[in-house]
């Protein structure tokens, strides 16, 4: 990998990016500790959120399928009848 590609990937010099990330991690860690937020509790909360979103996603797909089928039971026969009647009138 060329030097230019590495700089583009990291958004600057790898050493400078690493230094910024270390400083930012230190500041965020201090704020979290000051707010009495445990990193493992935070990780558990993110994991629970992910599981809930995953479960809601499949529930939403199931509900979407039910809405689709209910609508199709009305829309498709009406569409079919309009096509048959318009075919008979020569349009």
List the helices and strands and how they pair.
Elements lengths: L2 H8 L3 H21 L4 H50 L3
Short description:
By secondary structure, the protein is mainly alpha-helical. Helix content is 87%, strand content 0%.
Walk me through what this model shows.
This protein has 91 residues and is an all-alpha fold. The protein has two domains: 1-36; 38-91. It has helices at 3-10, 14-34, 39-88. The relative contact order is 0.04. The radius of gyration is 28 Å and the shape is elongated. The N and C termini lie far apart (64 Å). 87% of the residues lie in helices and 0% in strands. The chain is built from three helices and no strands.
Offer a few descriptive terms.
single chain; 91 residues; mainly alpha; 2 domains; 3 helices; 0% strand
Strand portion: under 5%
Low-confidence stretches: none
Number of domains: 2
* Overall average pLDDT: 82
Q: How many DSSP H or I helices?
A: 3
Shape: elongated
Provide the succession of SSEs. HHH
**SSE class:** mainly alpha
What gyration radius follows from the Cα positions, in whole Å?
Answer: 28 Å
- Helix content range: over 70%
Query: What composes the largest sheet?
Result: none
The total strand number stands at: 0
Report the end-to-end length measured between terminal Cα atoms.
Answer: 64 Å
Domain DUF6460: 53-88
Organism: Lichenifustis flavocetrariae
InterPro entries: DUF6460 (IPR045594)
Protein name: DUF6460 domain-containing protein
